[in-house]
Write a sequence for this structure.
C-alpha cells in the first residue's frame, strides 16, 4: 500500500460547494416538455433512417463485408431506438390517462 499518497491528503482540502440549481428558470408544462422531447427525438430518428437508407442504396458500400456489418449494426441500433421511443410514448400516454382519470 502506498502510504505517501495517503499522507499527502489534507483534511478538507478537496471539499468544494457545487451549485445544483437547475439552469432552466422558466416554467413549462409537461405537455410542452414531452412535445419538445418527442420532436427532437423524431428529427434525430428520421435523420438516422435517411442515413441508413442512403447506405443501403449505395452499391459500393454494400459490396464490402465491413460495410454490410456496419449497416447491420446501425440498423439494429436504429430498431432499438425506435422500440424505446415507442415504449416510452406508450408509458407517457398511459401515465397521462391515469392522472386525468384521478
Amino acid at each position: 500500500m502506498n502510504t505517501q499518497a495517503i499522507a499527502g491528503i489534507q483534511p478538507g482540502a478537496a471539499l468544494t460547494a457545487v451549485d445544483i440549481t437547475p439552469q432552466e428558470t422558466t416554467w413549462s408544462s409537461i405537455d410542452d416538455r414531452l412535445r419538445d422531447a418527442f420532436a427532437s427525438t423524431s428529427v434525430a430518428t428520421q435523420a438516422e433512417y435517411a442515413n441508413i437508407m442512403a447506405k443501403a442504396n449505395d452499391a459500393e458500400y454494400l459490396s464490402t463485408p465491413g460495410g454490410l456489418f456496419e449497416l447491420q449494426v446501425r440498423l439494429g441500433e436504429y430498431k432499438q431506438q425506435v422500440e424505446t421511443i415507442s415504449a416510452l410514448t406508450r408509458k407517457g400516454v398511459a401515465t397521462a390517462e391515469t392522472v386525468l382519470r384521478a
